[in-house]
Amino acid sequence: MKAKLVITPKKAVLDPVGKTVQNALAHMGYQGVTGVHVGKYIEIDLAPGTDKAQAREALNAAAHKFLSNPVIEDFQLELVD
User: What pLDDT digit, counting tens, does each position of 17-27 carry?
Assistant: First the structure.
């Protein structure tokens, strides 16, 4: 099983890297881009036979306590068999 975690800045938080990418896209001729949010992507391999519910609970806790900053970031967790 594999866990996929996507961490992005909250919509209300200033994202200078996202703004830089948005400006670069506009300068390259890509029109219509109204926002860019740059975040992190983490893949975690889990041992065979790992209980999916327990893994989800543990990884949610890890994402909230360690892998992301819940004050300024949101995260999405997906478990894939």
Answer: 999 999 999 99
Tabulate helix, strand, coil % of the chain (nearest 5). Answer: 35, 25, 40
Going by pLDDT thresholds of 50, 70 and 90, the confidence category of residue 81 is: confident
State the Rg of the chain over Cα.
Answer: 16
Residue 7 to residue 69: CA distance in whole angstroms: 9
For residue 66, count CB atoms less than 10 angstroms from its CB and return exposed for 0-12, middle for 13-18, buried for 19 or more: exposed
Report the candidate in 39, 62, 15, 6 with the shortest Cα–Cα distance to residue 23.
15
Give the contacts of 19 (CB within 8 A, at least 6 positions apart): 36
Tokens of 58: 């543990």
Q: Which domains does the chain have, with CATH numbers?
A: 2-80 (3.30.1280.10)
